[in-house]
Amino acid sequence: MKTIVSLILLFFVASSQPDKKAPSITSDEVKAMVNYLASDELQGRKTGDEGIDKAATYIENQFRSYGVKPYFETYRDEFKIDSINAFNVVGFIEGTDAKLKDEVIILGAHYDHIGYGSAAKSKTSGGRLTETDSIANGANDNAAGTAAVLAMAKYFATNKNNKRSIIFALFTAEEMGLLGSTHLAERLKSEALNLYTMVNFEMVGVPLKDKKYQAFVTGYDLSNMATKMNEYLNETNYLGASEIAIKYQLFKRSDNYPFYAIFKAPCQSISSCDLSNFDYYHHADDEPSELDYEFMASFINKVTLAIEAMSNTKTKEIVMYEH
Predict the structure, then answer these.
(1) What is the CATH number of the domain that holds 80?
(2) Closest-CA residue to 229 (of 261, 206, 197, 257)
């Protein structure tokens, strides 16, 4: 009798526990984020312009609605570029484990773009030119990566299942030479942040063509990041190495690089665009309509699972290779 009562009690206790929800960002949610960040209203999100302030406010409001706290006193990590007021937007979710929470994962993406593109496009009606649009909206570069980080922030804020702490960093002034990420990396280093790894998301709005992998990791041979994330996903080739990325040294051209240089830790970018599968890099036609939102939602949900596993391993499994 006692055994039956115990089993019934166990059943009700288990039933009362909230189920962990799998990552389930929808294509419509991703599209809504990109549509705003890459809208004409934001005028290409150039650092120092009014549009990037609107983008930062949007990101802050998203963080606030999810329950993501500011990492600093406010969400804005402010600094100067000559006379320009610049600001990264930085959120934080503390880890749930008393020891592991001191180790930090940074998930990052740049939310700035170039303002106006050199390649103007023509809008036509019935074959007649109606207006010329030169706003470089930066949908793939990098409203897409920003949306990925926001979606992951929402997931972890909802589930609270990360033993390690996570910083969500949206960088300004990437297009001016990685200035925002350099500033934040230097600031966090001066505060003795215990950085485990930094994963940056760059141009994840379109699928690769004729590749065995779905996305690539820059600096693939510098660490076992791609290998371990594939292992966490029970996949062989979800993340791979891009020869084009190696040729153009993309590892050094995005916001992972300052963190790698300053912390000497595994800090790499994940991208699904190696410039061979997207014709509108820094072009006025980098519009929301050019992105594949079903792919984006699938990619974000998948990679979130790998980040979740990364945040919960007993030891730091992602390590730099010796060279």
Answers:
(1) 3.40.630.10
(2) 197
**2 lies in a domain?**
no
Domain for residue 13, yes or no?
A: no
* DSSP secondary structure code for residue 23 in this structure: P
Helix, strand and coil content of the chain, in percent to the nearest 5, comes to 40, 20, 35
| Cα 97 to chain centroid, rounded | 24
The rounded distance, in Å, linking the Cα atoms of 188 and 68 is 19
Report the distance separating Cα 201 and Cα 196, nearest Å.
17
135-168 confidence digits (pLDDT tens): 999 999 999 999 999 999 999 999 999 999 999 9
Counting Cβ atoms within 10 Å, is residue 209 exposed (0-12), middle (13-18) or buried (19+)? exposed
The pTM for the full model equals 0.91
Which residue reads 């371990």 in tokens? 228
Q: Which of 165, 247, 251 is nearest to 200 (CA)?
A: 251
Encode pLDDT of 257-286 as tens digits.
999 999 999 999 999 999 889 999 999 999
- Answer yes or no: is 51 within a domain: yes
